[in-house]
């Protein structure tokens, strides 16, 4: 079974999380009206074999967005970190204040 080691909650079964997509995609600027650029970013993605960065949302836990590096062939997870550095700092401060 796939287990994700949440930096805030510890190891949890994957069904506590929601897969939220490819973390390696660079989207165009929000005000970019180039439809071809948006089409390429949203629909023309690679389906990598091997190590790949993904976004996961801890929906049944701390509700944090995580960036997970997972091997798509073996499902071995090599790293998990907060998707946004500011959130990680905020959570660390809250935990130390208790």
CATH topology value: Folate-binding fold
Structural category is alpha+beta
How many domains, in number, for the residues? Answer: 1
* Uncertain residue segments: none
CATH top level class name: Alpha Beta
Account of the 3D structure:
The chain is α+β, with helices and mostly antiparallel strands and 98 residues long. The protein has one domain (3-26, 35-97): 2-Layer Sandwich (Folate-binding fold). 22% of the residues lie in helices and 34% in strands. It has two helices and six strands, in the order βββαβββα. The chain has helices at 35-43, 85-97, and strands at 3-6, 10-13, 18-22, 51-57, 65-71, 77-82. The strands form two sheets. The chain has a four-stranded antiparallel beta sheet. Strands 1-2 form a two-stranded antiparallel sheet. Strand 4 (51-57) and strand 5 form a beta hairpin. The longest helix is centred in the last third of the chain and has 13 residues, at 85-97. The model has no long low-confidence stretch (mean pLDDT 87).
Element layout with pairings:
Blueprint: E1 3-6, E2 10-13, E3 18-22, H1 35-43, E4 51-57, E5 65-71, E6 77-82, H2 85-97
Antiparallel strand pairs: 1-2, 3-4, 4-5, 5-6
List keywords for this structure.
34% strand, alpha+beta, 2 helices, Folate-binding fold, 4-stranded antiparallel sheet, two-stranded antiparallel sheet, 98 residues
């Amino acid at each position: 079974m796939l287990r994700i080691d949440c930096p805030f909650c510890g190891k949890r079964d994957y069904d506590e999380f929601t897969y939220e997509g490819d973390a390696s995609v660079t989207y165009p600027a929000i005000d970019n009206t180039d439809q071809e650029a948006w089409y390429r970013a949203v629909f023309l993605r690679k389906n990598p074999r091997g190590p790949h960065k993904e976004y996961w949302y801890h929906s049944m836990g701390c509700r944090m967005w995580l960036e997970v590096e997972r091997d798509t062939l073996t499902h071995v997870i090599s790293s998990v970190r907060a998707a946004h550095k500011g959130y990680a700092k905020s959570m660390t401060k809250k935990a130390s204040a208790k």
